[in-house]
């Protein structure tokens, strides 16, 4: 006998949760990125609110995710040109054309905290993830924990997350996202009310199956672990493998996988994928076709392991960003752990393109 359960908070539920959470954060004194207090559905309101916030800003889809419906806006003329395009993308992607505005903060890290809460009031948080390596507002490399976050900051982030989800009576899992500036001040950005792509690094570094826990909580059972059960065991890194050609401005690639070798089997190495020899990569879905994850005793070991996986993995039939990841993993700024959310596009990519033509 099977019964239907709500596993993830999506659509209108997610929109209401995010809006409520932002209000709660403000009331509890947690710094919130300046932005629109309400959702926006027309360009005139967008211009009016943006003038109050100050440019540059991000125009974002209220029900968004995966970089869809997001645009950087530098002035009111650009807002009038781009608003309808972003809104249409949001409507097509999420069946919801409500937008909101957010002040752009420069030289920051994207730090996020995975949370769980069951129907019995039990709530936990997990070690933070550093998701600062991004291109076109989409994450490429994620890791846990963040090398720049100390133990006291980790505890503080967790306490903020716990107060937030308890205040809104949140159910199941989600991710509370922050921006961290160079002085280690944290600003609440948004909440993703679901399991995210990068949950794998959290699973690897804690040894806890988050997807299994999500289903257990959705079935109205208590959380199968406590806060004391959640410990950091080393360092984990994930690289998203996309069917795209970095040398042609990351153009998505279609085709048929005609040969596949996944070098798995070693401790602390993992590849999540649904592709197989003969599978077709079409233009109808997101270009991500695999996730490569490595766990090490420390960050350096995790980097060496994931480089080995990327060097040994073979995907033939379509072009991927496999070698592009290797270039990032060898970059001094990435190795130092100091890369910000704009590092890839402002610093790394121009130099990488220059070296291609040298």
UniProtKB/TrEMBL annotation:
Domain ATP-grasp intervals: 22-219
Annotated keywords: ATP-binding, Biotin, Ligase, Manganese, Nucleotide-binding
Organism of origin: Limosilactobacillus reuteri (Lactobacillus reuteri)
EC number, UniProt record: 6.3.4.14
Cofactor(s) in the UniProt record: Mg(2+); Mn(2+)
Domain Biotin carboxylation: 1-349
Catalytic activity, reaction form: N(6)-biotinyl-L-lysyl-[protein] + hydrogencarbonate + ATP = N(6)-carboxybiotinyl-L-lysyl-[protein] + ADP + phosphate + H(+)
PROSITE patterns recorded: ATP_GRASP, BC, CPSASE_1, CPSASE_2
A family per Pfam: CPSase_L_D2
PANTHER family linked: BIOTIN CARBOXYLASE, CHLOROPLASTIC, PYRUVATE CARBOXYLASE SUBUNIT A
MF terms (GO), sorted A to Z: ATP binding; biotin carboxylase activity; metal ion binding
Protein name as annotated: biotin carboxylase
């Amino acid at each position: 006998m099977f019964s239907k359960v709500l596993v993830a908070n999506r659509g209108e539920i997610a929109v209401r949760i995010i809006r409520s959470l932002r209000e709660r954060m403000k009331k509890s004194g947690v710094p919130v990125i300046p932005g629109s207090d309400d959702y926006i559905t027309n360009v005139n309101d967008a211009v009016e609110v943006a003038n109050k916030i100050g440019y540059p800003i991000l125009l974002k889809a209220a029900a968004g995710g995966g970089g869809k419906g997001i645009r950087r806006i530098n002035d009111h003329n650009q807002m009038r040109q781009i608003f309808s395009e972003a809104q249409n993308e949001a409507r097509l992607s999420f069946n919801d054309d409500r937008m909101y505005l957010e002040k752009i903060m420069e030289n920051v890290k994207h730090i996020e905290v995975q949370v769980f809460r069951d129907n019995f009031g039990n709530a936990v948080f997990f070690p933070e993830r550093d998701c600062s390596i991004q291109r076109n507002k989409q994450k490429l490399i994620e890791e846990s924990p963040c090398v720049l976050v100390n133990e006291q900051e980790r505890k503080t982030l967790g306490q903020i997350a716990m107060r937030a989800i308890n205040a809104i009576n949140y159910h199941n899992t989600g991710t509370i996202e922050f921006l961290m500036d160079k002085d280690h001040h944290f600003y609440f950005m948004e909440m993703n009310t679901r399991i995210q792509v990068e949950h794998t690094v959290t699973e690897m570094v804690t040894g806890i199956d988050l997807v299994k826990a999500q289903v257990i909580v959705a079935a109205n059972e208590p959380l199968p672990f406590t806060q004391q059960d959640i410990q950091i065991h080393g360092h984990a890194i994930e690289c998203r493998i996309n069917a795209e050609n970095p040398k042609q401005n990351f153009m998505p690639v279609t085709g048929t996988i005609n040969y596949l070798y996944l070098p798995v089997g070693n401790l602390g190495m993992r590849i999540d994928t649904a592709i197989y020899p003969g599978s077709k990569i079409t233009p109808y879905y997101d270009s991500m076709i695999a996730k490569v994850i490595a766990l090490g005793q420390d960050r350096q070991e995790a980097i060496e392991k994931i480089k080995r996986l990327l060097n040994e993995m073979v995907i033939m039939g379509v072009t991927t960003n496999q070698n592009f990841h290797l270039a990032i993993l060898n970059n001094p700024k990435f190795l130092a752990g100091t890369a910000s959310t704009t590092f890839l596009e402002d610093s790394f990519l121009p130099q990488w393109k220059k070296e291609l033509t040298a």
